[in-house]
Design brief:
The protein has 8 helices and 7 strands; from the N terminus they run E-H-E-H-E-H-E-H-E-H-H-E-H-H-E. By secondary structure, it is α/β, with parallel strands linked by helices. Strands 3-2-1-4-5-6-7 form a 7-stranded parallel beta sheet, with helices on both faces. Strand 1, helix 1 and strand 2 form a beta-alpha-beta unit. The longest helix is centred in the middle third of the chain and has 29 residues. The two termini are about 35 Å apart. The structure holds nicotinamide-adenine-dinucleotide. Nicotinamide-adenine-dinucleotide binds next to helix 1 and helix 4.
């Protein structure tokens, strides 16, 4: 059966060709969802949506900009009438050490990864409340759990750990409205966020330290998002799903 038949799903940071967001949009569409792709560049978002099928839409949205989140949400509501699923996926990273984090970098990393989750959720939740249902999944990272993944700096760890707290608090607050809020915590997934930043030798060494002996791919994170978006997870809220090949077993 189609797991998202007739559902409307909004996914942030979903225009990047090899990214987790676009893989999620494709998987959701293959399960019957209509998708709203949000990304920084409107043209790229529209193109990504059109490549999946004519019923899907792309919208410009910088998730760190509250007005942009409200606008993109209003446009999606105007086009589709409802939003059943929100995937707070947009994120950026920066490989620096604690003593190198300057104020502007702290703000940039926290704004996109953490503030963006708040703003887009604030825009969409009133519509989910009016509908009486909704599922929100938020992108955290193994970096939040183990104090650094492989590429993200301490500000990235802090932002992604903040996402866990924010999502759990929203899960408590909106459970009575039948809105579920969960997180995924991927390990090292091969996308453009890390492209060119690790040598083949480094990748092989990392893979050897992971129980499943390989890095992950975008579709494997999309699968976890699909579970959380669908009614298969109807009694799951405030949860954190590791998608890391066993890199962190706790
Ligand atoms: P990616 O760079 O391919 O995708 C990130 C997307 O977010 C891009 O399309 C980018 O344009 C978009 N984006 C950036 N800033 C934005 C903003 N302000 N507003 C809206 N969109 C914005 O990388 P990815 O690996 O697919 O990353 C997706 C998410 O997964 C990120 O939150 C990232 O931190 C997280 N993550 C990735 C890994 C990994 O190993 N790849 C591991 C754990 C978590």
């Amino acid at each position: 059966a189609l797991l998202l038949d007739g559902k409307v799903a909004m996914i942030s940071g979903a225009a990047s060709a090899r990214g987790i967001g676009l893989a999620t949009a494709r998987l959701f569409a293959s399960h019957g969802a209509t998708v709203a792709i949000l990304d920084l560049d409107e043209g790229a978002a529209i193109e990504a949506a059109a490549a999946i099928g004519p019923q899907h839409r792309g919208y410009a949205c910088n998730v760190a900009d509250k007005d942009a989140c409200l606008q993109a949400t209003e446009r999606a509501i105007a086009d589709f009438g409802r939003i059943d699923v929100l995937i707070n996926n947009a994120g950026i990273t920066q490989p620096v050490k604690t003593l190198e984090i300057d104020p502007a970098s702290w703000d940039r990393i926290l704004d996109v990864n953490l503030r963006g989750v708040l703003y887009l959720s604030q825009a969409v939740i009133p519509h989910m409340q009016a509908q009486g249902s909704g599922s929100i999944a938020c992108m955290s990272s193994v970096s939040a759990q183990r104090g650094g993944g492989i590429l993200g700096g301490p500000h990235y760890s802090a932002a992604k750990a903040g996402v866990l707290g924010l999502a759990k608090a929203m899960a408590r607050e909106f459970g009575p409205s039948n809105i579920r809020v969960n997180c995924v915590t991927p390990g090292l997934i091969q996308t453009d966020i890390s492209a060119g930043k690790l040598s083949d030798q480094q990748k092989a060494e990392i893979a050897a330290s992971i129980p499943l002996n390989r890095l992950g791919n975008a579709e494997e994170v999309a699968g976890a998002y699909l579970f959380l978006a669908s009614n298969l997870s109807a009694y799951i809220t405030g949860a954190v799903i590791d998608v890391n090949g066993g890199m962190l077993i706790h």
